[in-house]
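Hey forum,

I'm writing up a methods section and want to include a predicted complex as supplementary material. The small molecule is S-adenosylmethionine. I've pasted the protein sequence and the SMILES. Can someone with a working setup run it? I'll credit the forum in the acknowledgements.
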Amino acid sequence: MIEFDEAAARSVEAMYLTPDVVSQRMRVLDMLSPKPGERVIDIGVGPGLLAHDLARLVGDTGRIVGLDMAPAMIKMARTRLAALPQAECVAGDATALDFPEGVFDAAVSTQVYEYVADMPKALAELHRVLRPGGRVLILDTDWRSVVWHSSDEARMARMLACWDGHLADPHLPAKLGPLFRRTGFTVARVEIVPMLAAQWQPVSYAAGIMRAIHGYARGNGAKYGLTDAETQAWHEDQLRLIERGEFFFSVNRYAFLATR
Ligand SMILES: C[S@@+](CC[C@H](N)C(=O)[O-])C[C@H]1O[C@@H](n2cnc3c(N)ncnc32)[C@H](O)[C@@H]1O
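Reply by user p_vandermeer:
Happy to help. Structure tokens for the complex are below, copy them as they are.
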């Protein structure tokens, strides 16, 4: 697992300010369509970028609660939301929400549940804190959907297997529909949200994730049969492909909108 400390908070923030993830947030807001006066919880608020947009949309008669288990993330989100009195950030775990039943009109959680081992418990908690008819939007990546050009496919597969190891479930989206239904939710809409870099862009999700995967493999590669030399060779291969104009990366995120 990754520790979401101050350095990780800064790199998530930088990656989530890239145009790819800004446009993901627009899609998420469009699907959830928060209304003025609504009470919304953002589970795993992270840097607070989505919570900031939500707070402006629900206005000063609404309420946004950003919940996260990492102190560095809460600190960053609190700073971002400081000028918006309708928003607050609290420490907490997605599997044990410290709120009474039915207090929220909507819930949102992007790129969080793939880190959560006990999904039935997390969804039961969401169901409990939403009012009847309340809506929830969950977005996560299925890391099987990666298409990433490389000169050595076997080494790329080992690098991606290593990255899978930082998550509780790297393939959560494929299971999310049945998990929702078993908890008593009705799935209303599912959309695919691709992160595509058909050529190299230094300020992009692809560039950020390449840095993150490289760093993670340097510390954890041995468990997946990757030596430091092999991780370095993977990185140098990517730099060569970038130089030749042959870089290609894509991965799919999936957004589920459900109602209680
Ligand atoms: C990749 S970041 C996503 C942040 C934010 N949702 C976004 O999309 O910008 C994952 C966040 O989930 C939080 N997180 C992971 N597991 C959690 C849990 N069980 N309960 C609460 N937060 C959790 C991490 O601390 C981190 O801030």
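Some notes you might quote in the supplement: The pocket of S-adenosylmethionine is lined by residues 4, 12, 16, 44, 46-47, 49-50, 68-70, 73, 93-95, 110-112, 115-116 (CB under 6 Å). The CA atoms of residues 29 and 53 lie 8 Å apart.
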